Amino acid sequence: MNTLIRQAVSVVQPRRTFLGRTGLLLSGTAIALLSGREALAAKADKAAESDLRILNTALGAELEAIAAYQVGAESGLLQKPVLDLAMTFQGHHKQHADLLAATIGKLGGRAVSAKDKYSFPVDTLKNQVDVLRFAAGLEKGAVSAYLGAIPLFGNRDLAKAAGSILGDEAMHWAVLRQAVGDVAVPGAFVS
Amino acid sequence: MGTFRSKGWLLICAMLVGSAAAGTPAADEYARGAQVYERCAACHALEADRTGPHHCGLIGRRAGSVPGFPYSPAMRHAGFVWNEKTLDRFLRSPLTTIPGTSMGYDGVKDNGERRALILFLREAGHSERCRGMSARAP
Fold this sequence. Notes:
Chain A has a single domain, classed as Up-down Bundle (Ferritin). Helices cover 68% and strands 0% of the residues of chain A. Chain A is elongated and about 65 Å long. By secondary structure, chain B is mainly alpha-helical. Chain B has one domain: Orthogonal Bundle (Cytochrome Bc1 Complex, Chain D, domain 2), CATH 1.10.760. Chain B is 53% helix and 0% strand. In chain B, helix 4 crosses helix 6. Chain B is globular. At the A-B interface, helix 3 and helix 5 of A face loops of B.
């Protein structure tokens, strides 16, 4: 398991399971409750719920990215070595999804599943460049999505883990841009 | 002759409109909005539901009302219609506007970027692409 996620889980998990264990592991929420600070406890629980929602939205997007790369791979429009590259990137998204799903489960949430069917603009994908540009657009969107999620995490270790995934998506985006002949890194900042 | 005149007049009008549209503040704002919209591409598209719901016809639509889309309870019960004002509030800070929304995104903080994005959503949401989507709908 990714070290960052392991740290995040180790921080949050005791609160979720302390009653089922020995009762000796008291979380911030439990301490707040025991000391009569219900408002603080409720706030901590809300933050954990919010973190789970963010993780599940990220998981949904990762599952969609996996499906998108599959469409690209099966389109017959990608030639080697570009096809291998796409499969490598799809593999990264699978790793992201596995990790997010495992983390959601460990934090007491229920991970979303892949949809039965995804809708991609396949009628606009006529050649390899079209497929790569479409993938680049999704990767750019993923960078923005993680960037927009990071400030919202109550658990800073989850924010750090999201930053790690963001870095990977940004590399995908740059490589895909390079592959279609665009400037690989269009600016000093992402947004 | 009359026909030729009217066709010629139409052509001139079209040229004038075309030259006025390109490079105008509205066109620039739309292009800027389209660029900002690229940030949404991991979860949204105009014509199809993705991780988030489609955006064709967003303006004027009741929040949380796309049939079959698995909204959060918070969004389903938001109780308002998307317009420039509600979009502006939501896009600035989704989670504080609708606590419990699945859109775990900090928001578009820059006023100008938000304004351009809303213009893009308004215009693109009623574009030919979107009208085609309505036509394809069962």
